[in-house]
Amino acid sequence: MSVFNRVLVTTLPLVPKFIVGRVASRYVAGETLDQALQVVRDLNAQGAMATVDVLGEEVKEREKALDAVEKYVRVLQAFDQHKLDSNVSIKPTLLGLKIDEGFCRDNIERIAAVAKQYGNFVRIDMEDHTCTDATLRIYRELHARYGNLGAVLQSYMRRTLQDISELPRESPNVRLCKGIYVEPRRVAWKGYDTVRANYVLALEKLLATGIYVGIATHDEYLVAQAVGLIDKHGVPRDRYEFQMLLGVDEELRRILIQGGHRLRIYVPYGQDWYPYSIRRLRENPEVARHVLRAMLSGR
Ligand SMILES: Cc1cc2nc3c(=O)[nH]c(=O)nc-3n(C[C@H](O)[C@H](O)[C@H](O)COP(=O)(O)OP(=O)(O)OC[C@H]3O[C@@H](n4cnc5c(N)ncnc54)[C@H](O)[C@@H]3O)c2cc1C
After folding, report:
1. Cα angle vertex 243, ends 237, 249, to 5°?
2. pLDDT at 297 > cutoff 80
3. How confident is the model at residue 298 (pLDDT cuts 50, 70, 90)?
4. Mean pLDDT in residue range 131-155
5. CA-to-CA distance for 197 and 209, rounded, in angstroms?
6. Which one of 97, 142, 250, 270 is CB 3.0 to 4.6 Å from 104, fit for a cystine?
7. What angle do CA 213, 192, 196 make, to 5 degrees?
8. β-strands 240-245, 212-216: how paired?
């Protein structure tokens, strides 16, 4: 990333919210469920699956967490009703993890139970390192009872190879990503190449043991490594999927689909778009150009 982009990334919180919203709109389906469903429909028509995320995190009030549960129930009902190929991704801190772990587990259980009723699947996103233990505990407990949940592991975390060893024996399902939160060095690898190398190690460990993997990255180097590992271990096409975020590298998306790989797009929607959008903009290597253009366009 250029120096100018880096400077802008550190000063992003100073950029007016309407400019952030304008630039980040490519990453978010919209504010309503109908908008999210339309994006999923379009993705399905292009040969991609989806996973829908109701935006929001770090809730402090029980009512907000319960409201999010009901939104997820409506999302799952809508997938069934409109025959859409999509599952859901949930954030434990939206569902009350920072209020009480048991309350959060009960909320995730309700979503998992509804998903099971519709033959669907729930991915539990991984947030910052203060959430890792509780998130994996909830995943293990509910997966043992419902069998339709998946976890996320982050290759920047030093513990990830160990976490793979401790996955449930019964049909575990893991999304592997680099990790997006700003973590202290005592828990996370810091170098770009180190995080990449650990991604390859973790991915090989997952694929070699037959664990279903969601290979979540837009890093062409990692995509190439993944294709090589899939070939090396003779992994069948239905035992993995690539995953990408809405609004990022649509060309790579098409290349993967044309290569015969299954691909799932992460589709966030909702009114609470700001923190998610800031994280996405921080990763965009051309953030400065986009922000400047939005400021100058006056639209
Ligand atoms: C489906 C999915 C789910 C995820 N779930 C989680 C999760 O639960 N927990 C978590 O911590 N992280 C999650 N992430 C985020 C992930 O950890 C990374 O932060 C993110 O994917 C960027 O890493 P990368 O592997 O794409 O590599 P990078 O090196 O960051 O990016 C590779 C290239 O992709 C392009 N690119 C990447 N991001 C953007 C962007 N925002 N805008 C424009 N271009 C971009 C650029 O060309 C860049 O050079 C998820 C990512 C995906 C794809």
Report:
1. 120
2. no
3. low
4. 98
5. 19
6. 97
7. 25
8. parallel
